[in-house]
Write a structure and sequence with these properties.
This protein is of the alpha+beta class and about 180 residues long. About 50% of the residues lie in helices and about 20% in strands.
Length: about 180
């Protein structure tokens, strides 16, 4: 282990300067491993995929990614071994399975509440509070007003207006770099 970074020496860290660099890396087919504490929200055309630390991002799975939110202290690294790539892929599959279980909840309000609970556990209430309901609802397949009701029912702050989202997401990305 490298005593300065608590990361294995064989991992090379990737520190993109802005979201465009991440999107370029993902669309070029490169795979990276998310490291740190928090979540990566990968916004596709019709849904939002969520992965946590130690999961693979990029490659074929995220070629169509249009927007990225980094929640918490997430950074990315290249893997140098097939074992690390396999473990990262398995972690990505675990996140897909977790989200699939959420989608099985028949009642939309309960699905939204379970989604919020899972995201808050992984990234913290403050990070989730900065995301609009329009993005969050795409994680679990509910309408934005259902996500608004779920926030309210859980005693969480109201979603920022879409006009405020660009400011909040810029702040989230800057905090994570």
């Amino acid at each position: 282990m490298d005593t300065n970074s608590n990361r294995p020496e064989r991992m090379s860290s990737v520190t993109p300067r802005h979201e465009g660099e991440l999107l370029h890396l993902f669309s070029s087919g490169q795979t990276l491993i998310a490291r740190g504490q928090g979540l990566v929200l990968l916004c596709k055309e019709h849904y939002v995929d969520v992965v946590g630390s130690d999961a693979m991002v990029g490659g074929v799975a995220d070629y169509s990614c249009q927007k990225i939110f980094l929640l918490g202290s997430i950074h990315f690294a290249h893997s140098q071994s097939s074992e690390e790539r396999r473990a990262a892929f398995e972690e990505r599959i675990a996140w897909i399975n977790d989200l699939s279980e959420l989608a099985c909840e028949v009642v939309p309000l309960q699905r939204a509440q379970k989604c919020l609970t899972k995201l808050i556990q992984a990234a913290g209430a403050k990070a989730i509070a900065d995301l609009s309901d329009e993005w969050l609802c795409q994680v679990c397949g509910v309408l934005p007003n259902t996500m608004t009701m779920a926030r309210k029912g859980m005693g969480l702050p109201a979603s920022p207006a879409m006009s405020d989202v660009n400011i909040a997401q810029d702040r989230l990305l800057a905090q994570s770099l």
